[in-house]
Amino acid sequence: MDQSATDEREDWRAALDADPAAFGRLFDRHRHAVFRQALRLVEQPADAEEVAAAAFFELWRKRGSVPLVHGSVLPWLLTTAVNLARNSHRARVRHESMLKRLPRDRGDEQSLRAFERIDDAVLRTDLVKALRRLTPQDVALVTMTALDGYRVPEVAGLLGLTEGAAPVRLHRAHLRLRSLLTPSDDPQEVAR
Question: Which of 70, 80, 170, 173 is the most exposed place for a label (fewest CB within 10 A)?
Answer without folding.
Answer: 70
